[in-house]
Amino acid sequence: MFCKYILYNSDTTTTPKRQAYVYPKPQWVVQKNDIVYVMDVSLRNLYHGKKTTVVTRDISVEVDLVKGMADGQRVTYAGKGLNLPGHAPGDLIVIINRVDYPFYKQLSAGNLQCEVEVDHKMAQGGGDICIRHPSGNIINLELLPGEIPSPGYQKVLSKMGQISSDKTQTGDLYVKFTIYFPHANVTI
């Protein structure tokens, strides 16, 4: 969302109140005869795949989000755009805009990264960590004593990332560790 403008109440007799008028970004725009629709999709929905409906003006189209679709990928529906007299019918172009899933971000095609905060005792002595994967499954990660040598250390879980859209490859999951020192209230 973006703010078009912000107004402040100028009434000085009471406590000043703030009012903000927020307008969402337009989801679709018209370019010539084509309608370009930007669809916000969560990483979880891209992981599972999903069918969703796009509604623009008087047009309603069901979009099939295939597992592993990439950010910025375009899906074109021929003839579903504007129908202006004397012109060929335009297209509906749906652009996938990936919205980051809490705790996860996508590094590259299929590779995911999550950041886990552990206290200094677990970093030195090891232990078990449970992570909820975008698939909904729980991953039990066993840390050996001294396995996290320094802050920023990454453990790679092979084939635990996102599947590619052609379903031939699965990316890796990178677990990045930060170390928390509770007595100093510092995370590094």
UniProtKB/TrEMBL annotation:
Domain Chaperone DnaJ C-terminal, chain residue ranges per copy: 36-182
Source superkingdom: Eukaryota
Keyword RNA-binding recorded: no
A matching Pfam family: DnaJ_C
The keyword Chaperone appears for this protein: yes
GO molecular function annotation: protein-folding chaperone binding; unfolded protein binding
UniProt-listed GO biological process terms: protein folding
GO terms for cellular component: cytosol
Matches recorded under InterPro entries: DnaJ_C, DnaJ_subfamily_B, HSP40/DnaJ_pept-bd
Keywords: Chaperone
Name recorded for this polypeptide: Type I HSP40 co-chaperone
